[in-house]
Specification:
Elements lengths: L2 H23 L2 E2 H8 L3 H13 L3 E3 L14 E4 L4 E8 L3 E8 L4 E8 L7 H21 L3 E9 L3 E2 L2 E5 L4 E5 H5 L8 E4 H12 L6 E6 L3 E7 L2 E3 L30 H4 L1 H8 L4 H9 L3 H25 L3 E6 L1 H20 L8 E4 L6 H16 L2 H9 L8
Parallel strand pairs: 4-7, 7-11, 12-15, 15-16
Antiparallel strand pairs: 1-3, 2-3, 4-5, 5-6, 8-9, 9-10, 12-13, 13-14
Bound molecules: zinc ion.
GO molecular function: DNA-binding transcription factor activity; kinase activity
Family: Belongs to the ROK (NagC/XylR) family.
Organism: Planomonospora parontospora
Amino acid sequence: MTQAVRHDSMRARNLGVVLGEVRRSGPVTRAALAEMTGLTKTTVSKMVADLLAAGMVTETGVPSRGERGRPGTAVALSGGRVAALGLEINVDYLSACVVDLTLEVRLRRARAVDNRAASPVETLSHLREIAREAVEEARSLGLVVAGSTLAVPGPVDDGLVHSAPNLGWRDVHVGELLDGLLTPLPTVDNEANLAALGELWFGSGHRDFLHVSGEIGIGAGLVVDGALFRGSHGLAGELGHVVVFPDGPPCRCGGRGCLEQYAGQEALLRAAGAGTVEELAGRLREGDAAALAACERAGHALGLALTSAVHLFDPGTIVLGGVFAPLFPWISGAVLETTAARLSAIRDAVPDLAVSRLGGDATALGAAGQVIHRIIADPVAYVTASRTAPAGSKPR
Ligand SMILES: [Zn+2]
């Protein structure tokens, strides 16, 4: 390794260490940063100067607590420039959101589209329009979208969606199809995983939980001590294909009696005779018997699947999100009754059942949050890009 390369990699590491500490502790003085990171004051000052120039941190002037003498200028994350784009393709909608470096949500876009009726290429070009609008609007707010993550409703491996049965996708190479269409090229990840991360970063503050996303498919994401459990092939959390009634109706996965056949959005609407989730919720508020019975049946099936999940993983809390959020008042009773009847005899602690405040937004937020966490862990590329941009140039 040449000295220059060694110097560059050390600078990259130090930028990440300083920015990470600002995120954890900020607003914080340079002196306190040196103490916390073990770096010299000179190094910290250089890193902070680079991060200030890149618009990633800002000087707040707030004196840090517990320090004597003249209050130092504190440094905090800046939400004013660097931002991330979260994108979601779901069965019946597309959505986008932009989140800044402080994890503040700056804008959201959603469009109802039946993506089953479209080819992957059509869906992706529609997505590109929404992404482009979001990036342009972010630019008008003075933000630079530094990266994006795209959520898809199926398992993903290096940009390849092996199978998203509810979209009718098989071996769709999203990364290749988007190449040249969307800049920067998004990372592609599974919807249920990102929804769980969305709940972790933007939700109620739980750090040990099982997040259940109710959509047309049902996915779950297990978060243990603030980290997502993905399984050895990234396929963990396919709760919708947990069998609840072995002789039940056939499922797209090739099995029978999967949870999705009872508690998935379509199964639920069909059983209730409703066209949309909004219509179903309206009828539930009016006390419609068919709607109530459909939710009772879905809640019972969900409770059976969650009983198994609790036995396997012992989560502290179960968070119901996606369409289960607006339907929570009518589903949660049957879920609790079913789980309590099967868990309480052998367990003292039964997990809490909570409703996600994010609902269907969790996935796109998790997608954007993932980009922000990556940028904060490794900010050197963004610092360098802002340095090489001509002085006074508008961010692009
Ligand atoms: Zn299935």
